[in-house]
Write a structure and sequence with these properties.
about 280 residues; mainly alpha; 14 helices; globular
């Protein structure tokens, strides 16, 4: 009955295209042949497919995050705050999807994972270059990680370029200065390849923004968008850590990291420290 109903409904849709011999299809547009044939299990274990797809989905969401953040950085540099807000709000929504994907991987049990873990060799999510690019775009930079990507010359150049580029927090602090708020020269002219450290002039500038919301509405909205992103990034890190602990306990990661111990340490890293510090003092 259902098939007959669907057939009649389809037949009544006179404008539906069915001849694609010389036209682009949905599959063609999305490159589904490439996308859906990229999941290659190295073992014959059923659950390795889950492991691969979860990481593929994560990398796709990361690609969109980078697309939006990099565009938002250019918007902020040009003083186009409104357009940056839409992009940063989208990043937050994507981060929610990225965080929830750990719930899917958490259905993998320790007994199942050990059946194919050795097939990964030294491959590890720690090596995800898109995750690294996101960290760079948010302002957390460490030079020693660049060595991981020397194998691919073009990729290494891309990551090195991001390493030397200002982060979204760098350009946000520049926006504070452009609005007439006093920022130390040492901050405005600092080496952007180093992590940002809490600075009193930056905190006081943001305090002024939060105490004068109507006057500095765009900067206030920018600050809250940044807090949303950091909040969700930390939630993603926490779910990552707990999922890893649930599956492998306190074993070392396949890439040689301390596994859960390493993931717990990065939970203490802040991208935008002054935006969190001021909350205590307001």
């Amino acid at each position: 009955m259902t098939d007959e109903y669907e057939y009649k409904a389809f037949k009544n849709e006179k404008t539906i295209h069915t001849d694609f011999k010389e036209k682009m299809t949905y599959s063609d547009y999305l490159g589904l042949d490439t996308l859906l044939t990229s999941q290659h299990r190295l073992s014959d274990h059923h659950d390795e497919m889950l492991f691969i797809i979860v990481h593929h989905v994560s990398e796709l969401w990361m690609k969109l995050i980078l697309h939006e953040i990099q565009s938002a950085i250019h918007d902020i540099q040009g003083g186009h705050f409104s357009s940056s807000f839409k992009k940063l709000a989208r990043v937050s929504q994507v981060q929610t999807q990225l965080k929830d994907v750990w719930n899917v991987l958490a259905t993998l049990t320790p007994s199942e994972y050990i059946e194919f873990r050795d097939f990964l060799g030294q491959a590890s999510g720690f090596q995800s270059y898109q995750n690294r690019l996101i960290e760079f775009a948010l302002g957390y930079k460490t030079k020693h990680v660049l060595k991981i990507y020397e194998k691919d010359h073009e990729l290494h150049k891309r990551i090195e370029k991001a390493y030397h580029a200002p982060s979204i927090y760098d350009v946000s602090i520049q926006a504070l200065a452009k609005a007439g708020l006093p920022i130390d020269d040492a901050v405005l002219n600092r080496d952007v390849t180093t992590p940002h450290h809490p600075n009193e002039s930056v905190k006081q500038a943001w305090m002024t923004v939060y105490k004068n919301v109507d006057k500095y509405w765009e900067l206030y909205e920018l600050a809250e968008e940044l807090v949303d992103i950091e909040d969700l990034f930390q939630q993603w890190r926490f779910r990552h850590m707990k999922t890893v602990e649930r599956i492998i306990g306190f074993k070392k990661g396949t890439g040689g990291s301390g596994g859960v111990r390493y993931l717990k340490k990065v939970l203490d890293q802040y991208f935008f420290p002054e935006l969190w510090e001021l909350r205590t003092e307001l």
